[in-house]
Design brief:
Helices cover about 20% and strands about 45% of the residues. It has about 90 residues and is α+β, with helices and mostly antiparallel strands. The protein has one domain (about 5-85). Helix 1 packs antiparallel against helix 2 (about 80-85). It starts with a strand and ends in a 7-residue tail after the last helix.
Length: about 90
């Protein structure tokens, strides 16, 4: 996979794997993550929209997601556990 490195913290480095265009025409960088369930996540700090691409069940958008939630998601040792505890069902898009 070709990508460019993106440092989230001095100890956490992930790869920006591609861009994706949201329905509103906003381009969001998706970051590949190490997870059995989640392939990539992205966040637009201007609109507070987050996109999660699951390995087996598609891609989903979440609205009103604060940047600190996204950054903690990136840093979580278990992305699936963090998703279920802190994101799922909390940030619906209208």
């Amino acid at each position: 996979m070709v990508g460019r490195k993106m440092a989230v913290t001095p100890t956490v480095v992930e790869w920006v794997c591609h861009n994706t265009t949201l329905t509103e025409g906003i381009t969001m960088e998706m970051i590949a993550v190490r997870s059995r369930a989640i392939a990539a996540i992205g966040h637009d700090p201007e609109t507070l929209r987050m996109r999660v691409r699951f390995r087996d069940s598609g891609t989903y958008d979440f609205c009103g997601v604060p940047e600190h939630v996204f950054l903690r998601f990136l840093q979580a040792p278990s992305k699936g556990r963090y998703y279920h505890r802190h994101i799922k069902g909390r940030y619906p898009c209208p």
